[in-house]
Hints:
449 residues, alpha+beta, Beta-Lactamase, 5-stranded mixed β-sheet
Amino acid sequence: MGFWWRPLGVLAGVLLVALMLWAGSGWVAALGFLAGIQAFVMLRRLWQEYRLARWLENPDGAPPDATGTWGDIFYRLEKLQRRQRDSCSELTSALEQFEHAAQVVPDAMVILNGSERIEWCNPASRKYMGLDSERDRGQFIRYLMRQAPFLEFLDAVDYSRRLVCKSPVNREIILSMQLIPFGENKKLLVARDITDLERVDAMRRDFIANVSHELRTPLTVVGGFVETLADAPDLPATESRRYFDLMLDHTRRMQRLLDDLLTLSRLESEERSLKDEPIDVPELARALQTEAESLSRGRHRVSLRLDSSATLKGNLQEIRSALGNLVSNAVRYTPEGGEIILAWSGRDGEGVFSVTDSGEGIAAEHIPRLTERFYRIDRSRSRETGGTGLGLAIVKHVLTRHGARLDIRSTPGKGSTFSAIFPAARIKPVGSPESGKVIPFREREQAAG
Ligand code: ADP
């Protein structure tokens, strides 16, 4: 109603004046007055319409100045225009944000129209699908990506399905693609790099296959002997003794495998080493020398070189098991009469525990893979000597948890040196204020029961 009161008020005033004129001066004067007012209103309207038309040509400036109804109209038009301008800039900034987000999204995204032509694609689609947002806009996706599985995937129009395929740009990259319908007949094609996931999955499959394979042989042997013993209860005592010994051997092998698997799983599930303590490495080295001699049963010469008396900050149980694995490998892969040297030394502040043997050595191509689970150069040799194929995987895990690394040097036919290199931060020269009180680990092991 706010808009109407003013014109109605003016109209009422004009009519009142016309009536008064009619009463005082006759109807000619009244009609003359009304005609004059009409002419004035028409001229004013024409003028304001002209001003409005000029303003609309360039609405960015201020609206024309006017009072009354026209002022009201200009004010409302300006308000409308301001609102439109605001929503336009909101839309532009939303679009810009979307554009920026699409630039950094790691997945490839392609918008296809109803006839499968590319309307838009982000930079990741160049990396994974070889598409260019400028060059390929408006192109049929089928002409650019012609692999049969992809074309079948497009034809299937099954939006719940995902296509796992190799990237047409780089065959090493595995992609998972999905089509998502949206808007009117449009589709969003999303391709995600799942190379790492696939690799982990392949590792998991290999691991299960390996464990099953490792357990199947001893289980079959034990099962076979049990059946033989059950079918032939009168077997001579020496014969059955031999069978029992073999069964025991294979049972121990399974036990060792399970122990190693549990150790690995514990190392993988606990992120950090349990509890750090100062370890008296020279004393640990002496204990490992004794262990090596007992494993060797006099077949090798085992010596010790202690060039450092520094202690090591770490978890004794884990370090002992890792270095023990290196020592046991040296004994197992060195033929009778060979030599094994355990050494502890310092190098540029780092601590180096090395196990050198004069054994069969390792060809260079095997060295990078030795710490993979179940990787063995000679499977039967490893089994004969009681190996599980997990020893060096455990060593690598323990060393990584201690910020240390494993260095392997070997010459086939001459021997190998496996060195555990500990960072300076974990090495404390004896007598340094930080070295703490070192409790001989034999005492600690006894205390731990
Ligand atoms: P395994 O239980 O088979 O010994 P490891 O993980 O300890 O498993 O070692 C992996 C493989 O590395 C072994 O099968 C063996 O072929 C090789 N290897 C390890 N230590 C030595 C060594 N000192 N000399 C020669 N080969 C070795």
